Amino acid sequence: MTNPSFEFSRAVTRRPSASIINGLRAEDIGTPDLDQMLADHAHYVATLKETGAEVIELPPLEAYPDAVFVEDTALCLPQGAVMMRPGAPSRMGEVAEMEPALRAVYEDIRQISGPGHIEGGDILVTGREVLVGRSDRTDAAGVAELAGILADWGHSLREVFTPPGVLHFKTDCSLLDADTILSTKRLEASGCFEGYNVLHVADGEEAAANSIRFNQYVICPAGFPRTAEMLSNAGYDVVQINNSECSKLDGGMSCLSLRF
Ligand code: CIR
């Protein structure tokens, strides 16, 4: 059994830096506006805090344009934290920048030492297992090394696949409660969620799949009204946060925090 799945007492975030304009993106759909991103980030942090959680807010890192996307640097579990080994070379150095913050709260810190690669955006911790999607950023060797570490802690890891052209596994899904997943239809079609309750994002609102359940809230990117309404009707307390700037860099709600 893996827990907690959506009840968290802490989160780590990092403020975006001016270098965000140089962040990685699959496709150029415009330059992110730092002021708007800072405002959205502040709303995100305030929402996490509103649940009663402590938010450890780290300073901007000019040397790493994508450092605001802290989720990719580590996996945080009750037993300890695993420092990742990003598949994007420009993001490798973010891991060492994150480690001191996690050392302050965890006794057991492990490291993916390679040669494989794995990013936190490809990892979904549910109430029963740890799902890891192979992707352009996460390879078989990275998954195998993580599986060894998690076995020490009594977690079972199941390898699945991120759809082609999708950045991370969690670009297309999120956990709503221990057994319920919010997913795009294209990801669910792979069969990776058999045995779970699955709610689909509305057609044309695929980007809403990268939401997070954080304590009482489901935090969704704004601009996907049919998915937000579906979640409200299903009984979830939905908070919508503008994501126009992070989305220019393929980021959503999960990537902006480590949660534990
Ligand atoms: C990247 O390409 O690495 C960043 N621009 C976006 C990372 C988003 N991370 C995530 O969804 N976990």
What does this structure look like?
This is N(G),N(G)-dimethylarginine dimethylaminohydrolase. Its EC number is 3.5.3.18. Belongs to the DDAH family. InterPro entries: DDAH-like. One of its GO terms (biological process) is citrulline metabolic process. This protein has 260 residues and is of the alpha/beta class. The chain has a single domain, classed as L-arginine/glycine Amidinotransferase, Chain A (5-stranded Propeller). It is built from five helices and 15 strands. The chain has a three-stranded mixed sheet with strand order 2-1-15, covered by helices on one side. Strands 3-4-5 form a three-stranded mixed sheet, covered by helices on one side. Strand 4, helix 2 and strand 5 form a beta-alpha-beta unit. The radius of gyration is 17 Å and the shape is globular. The two termini are 16 Å apart. The mean pLDDT is 97. The structure holds citrulline (CIR). The site of citrulline has 19 residues, from loops.
CATH architecture: 5-stranded Propeller
Largest sheet: 3 strands, mixed
Strand order within the widest beta sheet: 2-1-15
Give the mean pLDDT: 97
Q: C-alpha Rg, in Å?
A: 17 Å
Overall shape: globular
Q: How many beta-strand elements?
A: 15
SSE order in H/E notation? EHEEEHEEEHEEEHEEEHEE
CATH topology: L-arginine/glycine Amidinotransferase, Chain A
Which parts are unreliable, with pLDDT below 50 for 5 consecutive residues or more? none
Q: Helical amount among residues, as a percent range?
A: 10-25%
The total tally of domains equals 1
Structural class: alpha/beta
> Mind telling me the CATH superfamily name?
L-arginine/glycine Amidinotransferase, Chain A
* Bound molecule types: citrulline
Broad CATH class: Alpha Beta
What is the percentage of strand-forming residues? 15-25%
Continuous helix count = 5
Question: Between the first and last Cα atoms, what is the distance in angstroms?
Answer: 16 Å
InterPro entries: DDAH-like
GO molecular function: amino acid binding; dimethylargininase activity
Pfam families: ADI (PF02274)
Organism: Roseovarius litorisediminis
